[in-house]
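quick one before i forget lol
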Amino acid sequence: MRTTRSKAIALAFLIAAGVGGCASVTPDQRFPEVQADTLARVGGRVEWRQGTAADDLVDQRIAALLGQPLSADDAVQVALFNNAGLQATFEDLGIAQAEVVTAGQLRNPDIAGFFRFPSSPPSGLNWNIGIDAWLLDAFLVPVRQRLANASEDQTLRLVTQQVVRLAADTRAAYFALQADSAAVRAQESLAEVARLALDLSRAQGASGNADDLRVAADRSAYQQATLSLLQARSAERASLERLRALMGLTDRPVAWMLVREAPGPTSGEPGEDELLALALGSRLDVKAADAEVQRQEYALELSKKWWLSTVQVGVETEESTDGQYTTGPHFSAELPIFNQRQGEIARQEAVIRQVQRRRTALQGQARTEVRTALQRVSAAREVVVLYRDEILPLRRATLAAVQDRYNSMFVGVFELLTTKSELTTAETGFARALQEYWTARSDLEVAVGTRLPDVPLPAANPSAAEAAPPPPPTSPPNPHQQHQPR
């Protein structure tokens, strides 16, 4: 009899332990969803580095990308593969998955007992052992699982949002470096023009054909051009370091190049109403806000069923000092006399109203961001088109005409150098305009929540004068077709 009771108690304990031990945690179980969403929203691929052989393949892919002139998409792909902060964010998925597993597990049973030694006959040992189970806690498991699943959905959206944000930041840093590099080349050309003008005025001053005031003015212009060149190089180095940090390349030398010029603008974007509807249906922060509302609603349901977690049912066996056994069930529960969780429930209801209103505010913010970004893109496109189709062709045609007049000795070298400087300044403005356009378009894609189609905008047909090729430069051209960051 004694052995039978002991075996029954041990069996019950082992069954409970076995049921709880069946669950396992797979941290990357939902990572394929992040990969699919990233491909659709960013056009790139993410990999979770977990110390496996797949990491070597990722490193090989990064090396291949860095071995060729980097486009903006290439830079984004390197960042998605190599950014350490993003890899840390992926661990949030493992944390959320662990919470899902925990939510599906029953509460562990309690085992308790005692041994007592009598001070007088009968002198047998008095002992008691019992096991208690939180049986009604099983009714809370589905609610806890819904709560944990909603939290995991929210985490999934927020992790993917970090991927999208990293891609946008990398694009912005890429185009900033591209524009800064163009500015350096332009300032180098302007400094060379200023040097030539200074050399010429000095030579004319030595021969009595230029006064000291002209020489001083050209010297001041050369000093200003040199100062601007130093500032441009400093800005280029700062932009390079920002891009290196986003791409996770701060621990290796810069041996990669950028494509020299940014692509031209696209033909246009969808209409405002279409973009607004797309944003409210696609933005990950809005989806995360939806998941947060659902999560808090499940938390309220769990709070209202608090009493289920206080009920214990068990069985115990006791041997008295005279050798008699008693076995039977017992239970315990909390009596809700003083505290019926009214405050906790009221708090949770207030939290639900709060997150609902935050979601509404976020939707309004999304609309504002879409409209603002769309206006920026439209304005930036107009500036780019104005530079590309009118300002630059006119500056090039003007320089060609001045070059012809200079060759015919109708104008002097100072007029030629001034015209060359005006063209270089316009080219710098065009590079900055392209930077603003692509940065604004990247921000629009973030505001909408997904990639937009890239249909190039065709250039206008220039007139015969505008189509004239630029004259030979006054200083040696740069033989490199791509820019290698300094």
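fyi Residues 463-486 have pLDDT under 50 and may be disordered.
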